[in-house]
Amino acid sequence: MSFARKQLPDAHTATLGVVGHPVGHSLSPLLQNTLLRKLSLNACYHAFDVEPARFRDAIRGAASLGFLGLNVTVPHKQRAAELCDLLSDEARLLRAANTLVFRPDGSIFGANTDPFGFRRALQEFRPDLRDFNALVLGAGGAARSVVLALSQLGSRNVWIANRTRSRAQALVQELGPALGEATALHDLPLDSSNVQRAVDASQLVVNATSVGMAPDVDATPLPPGVRLNPAMAVVDLIYNPLETRFLREAKEAGCEIDNGLNMLIFQAVASLEIWFETEVNLEPNFLTELRTLLTGALSSE
Ligand code: NAP
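That is the input. Now the predicted structure with NAP docked in place:
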């Protein structure tokens, strides 16, 4: 099929979108439609707010209507993986899919582009990181993607600290054996002394919790009194606000910081690559344009 773009949607325009609940603040339609236009692809990307009880019907309906594919976001990523006929290795390992492809034979393929998004963003931010140790705060879906990506990037030790420790323990038990011996995963209590020890042994700290996200911008995921080392790199997956309290304090401590915007962009690009079976290389100038566009959209909210 040809995806050469026309000026306006026509009978050949492919339908794409994101399904979430809520989805009203999603940046994905702006981001994906900008990418589609830049790449001259004849497709249109929409946002669909679907309650969990209607998710299965919505996916079946999208398949019946001949949608090319969908992104799936909170709270549907695990259910999406369950509905797929075939999963990518990463989606199977994470038991969550954020990218669905509706195939001509009626089957649904599911992939998870979050690990790729984080990997590419980290390579952009700190291409020099080798043989490193990392501390991940959080043990939800995003943390699992981050841990997988860190292992793929060659991290030696990853400490996982989460408010609900049993979730961190489950993450270690489920992902640990699949990652092989190169990366050792350790869960630890989210308290000042344990987290400080992990910080002191790490070159990278990642906030993969939702703590600090708007509107609770005064919250930080770090336990009280934990001091960051100025030589370390600090990433927050949150991009609203662009600079969380966690990132601001890390910057004040002398650390290099990065927010979640690049991960958002690169996971979106990876979804496009899957839907259109093509390789997309973002020129540095265009990446900067995308960041500016998204930053503008966030500040006008
Ligand atoms: P999730 O599965 O719901 O996990 C939420 C995590 O935050 C859990 O570890 C949870 O701990 C922790 N948490 C929530 N409230 C807390 C509190 N008051 N104190 C301590 N910990 C708390 O969500 P997710 O999908 O992993 O997303 C996590 C964050 O990553 C969100 O901010 C999301 O926007 C961001 N994200 C960004 C990107 C990107 O492209 N930049 C991609 C995916 C996600 P418990 O287990 O104890 O509840």
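Residues 261-276 form the longest helix (16 residues).
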